[in-house]
Amino acid sequence: MLIKNLEQRIKINKIVSLGSIGFAFFIVIAGFFFAYRMIQDSRKSIYILDNGVPVLAKQTDVLLNRPVEYKAQIELFHRLFFTLAPDDSYIKENIQKSLYLIDDSGKKEYTNLREKGFYNQIVASSSMVSIHTDSISLDRENNKFQFFGKQMISRKSSVITRKLFTEGFFEDIIRSPNNPHGVLLKNWRIINNEELSNQSKNSY
């Protein structure tokens, strides 16, 4: 009886020991797993300085935000290219910034407008040119975009509203300070820029 009791106790102790070792091993593995997840999550946390104050932000999957960045790039290019004031320096600065976002098709259109005297007319007539974006459509399969908006030319005596319909292609490139979205617009052209209205300003 004594020998049997000893054998049973040894078996029980062995089972308890093996169970304790298995449980401890599970705890260690679980600890490593959760620590790894915490490190991964912490790497997704970034801080943005807002007037010298660090603000916590979370990184998201780049691919999820890409369509938003494509549209932001397209809107930014058109705003820079078509927002003009009667100031040669201002025009050149805006055009230069816009040309970082596009291939040589942008430079060709700029040269075309300059040769037609468009920018000289803006300066001579003290006009302000701005645009309003109606919509931007993306064809992700062909990397093609279409921009729909309106161009407003405000002169001393009138406000001219023109349709602005353009299209082109987009391509992913390396991000840079001059191209923070990492998107290059290509083969861009103006499809329709017809006049929609010409309203006289009230003069008192």
TrEMBL record:
Annotated keywords: Membrane, Transmembrane, Transmembrane helix
User: Which parts pass through the membrane?
Assistant: 15-36
Q: What is this protein called?
A: Conjugative transposon protein TraK
Species name for this entry? Chryseobacterium terrae
Which taxonomic lineage is given here?
Bacteria, Pseudomonadati, Bacteroidota, Flavobacteriia, Flavobacteriales
